[in-house]
Amino acid sequence: MKLHRMHFTMLLLGMGLVSTLLFQNCAPVQFQPAEKVSEASTSGAEEPLLCSDGSVSGAVKWEVLAHDHFEEPGQCPYGGNLTLIYEKMQKVLCDGGQLVGQDEYKKGALITQRGGCDCADGVSNGSSIWKNVLGEVISENQACPVNGTLVLNYEKHQKYTCENGSLVSKQDFQKGPFINQTGACNCADGAPEGSSSTRLVPNATISEPGFCQYGGNLTHIYEKNQKFICQSSQYVGQNEYTKGKLIETTGACNCEGGAADGSIKYSSLAGQTISEPAVCKYGGTLVNIYEKLEKKVCTKAAFISTGEFSKGIFLRQEGSCNPPPVMTESFTVNSTKMVRPLDMVWVVDNSGSMKEEAAHVRNNLTTFINSLDKASDMKFLLYSQKGTTGTLVSLPSGLDAARFTQVNKVVGSTDGTKLVGDHLVLALKNGVPFFRTDSKKIVVFVTDDNSAISAATFMGLLDQAGARSADVAVFSFIGQGSASPCQAATGAVYQTLADQTKAKTYNICNLDWAQYFTDLKTDVLTKLGRSFKLQDTLAMKIVKVEVDGKVLLASDYSFAAGVLTLNDSVVLTETSSVKVSYTQE
């Protein structure tokens, strides 16, 4: 009997263990009622020991602990402090008719929760937010000091509270941000909202250019008005201005053609003239005819006549003046100093073959110099070795040493041009030039040979010495080829110089040199052009010039600053007379 009972007990324990393993964490085991057990025990098996709840030994169940529970954090998508609270269940074993609690627990049914989940948008659990109710507004009527209807419109906000992760709307509303206003209060003068008016701006004006067809500075000056708009019962000044009534006008418009106001204009009167008697020194009926001009003044864009008239451009003359009287002055060449200075240079060949030619020079030079000195403002330079015999030549005694000088050097048969040219250039470089700026430059060579330098080279030296070619004439006593039977060499260079300067050469082999000196003097006087200064300082116009009774052409002379100058084409002698007819007009 005990053995059967023991086997049965072990069987129950084994079943309980299996149940525990299979149904751990499951719902509590429901035991069979007592009558079921009795039926089993009456079936011939040994009767088991039962626990107080009717469970057999080895049976397992889970009991809720009354004073204990399980807690675990809830799942919150947006964060929070949610805590879930469950029943705490203990495993109980029926052992030998006794319910024995095991050291094994599990959570049962959810009892409650503590805290809660936060909501979206960072709203914490239990907190509230206000959301705009789309399409709805809260309107408030505002009192107006004068008249008007002003309604302020605000957003309508509804209260939402975060309840465990969900925003729950409440029937609680308040106004949000200001949206707009409808209607408006009137301004103090009763003007409605938005109405405008203008006010005079003190001490301010608006200037506006006036219309001027031809330009000008016409300016209209107006009062300055500012625009005001009634806004919220107050007049608010706008940055908008208009002109008021005209105060004054300054400046003026130009007249036709752009003439400024006040400018003067003279208009020709067609068919009308002004006549004035012309001044006739010696009487006459000459009248000057001018166009007649009317004086006008530009006044307010139009030319207005002043009633004054003046003469315009000269049109013509009528009548005539009596001619001025013709006056005369006469001159004799030998008693008249030439106005143009004369600078003369003589170069005498001192070579041994020149004895007869040197003697001719000595015999005629004094008379030649004295004659020219009377008729001109003369400077004279002699380039030759000094002496009174052989091939030597000296200046005549008694001459003005300031104007008559001699270079006492031997002149070879071919180097005369080079010697005198270098001397004249050096004098200019040393600051004592021989040639005067306004003088006629006459150079005379006496030689029975040709020049060692060319005509161009010699003229170049003269130019360096201050003698322009137009002022130079080169005369020479030279061998003239077959026309010179005295065995003199042909002076080709000297002939070229004479041709270039429109001078002459004289045959050195001729025995009568007195005539040569006379001819040379005449040629020199002709080259000087003979100038005659009229005594009458009022002389203005040359009517006629006569030389030795012959009337000259107008192209044969010139007249300027009271001086009559005869051209080189006019041949003069020492005894020639010159008669000048002129007027003072």
Topology-level CATH name of the largest domain = Rossmann fold
What is the annotated CATH architecture of the largest domain?
3-Layer(aba) Sandwich
Structure annotation, total helices: 7
Tell me, briefly, the overall form: elongated
Task: Kindly report the spatial arrangement of strands forming the biggest sheet.
Answer: 16-15-14-17-18-19
* Amino- and carboxy-terminal Cα gap: 194 Å
Task: Just give the CATH class of the largest domain.
Answer: Alpha Beta
User: Into how many domains do the coordinates divide?
Assistant: 5
Helix content: 10-25%
Query: Which structural class should the secondary elements be placed in?
Result: alpha+beta
β-strand percent reads 35-45%
For the report, how would you describe the main beta sheet? 6 strands, parallel
Average per-residue pLDDT, rounded, comes to 85
Radius of gyration, taken over Cα atoms and rounded to an integer in Å: 75 Å
Total number of β-strand segments?
Answer: 25
| Unreliable parts | 1-43
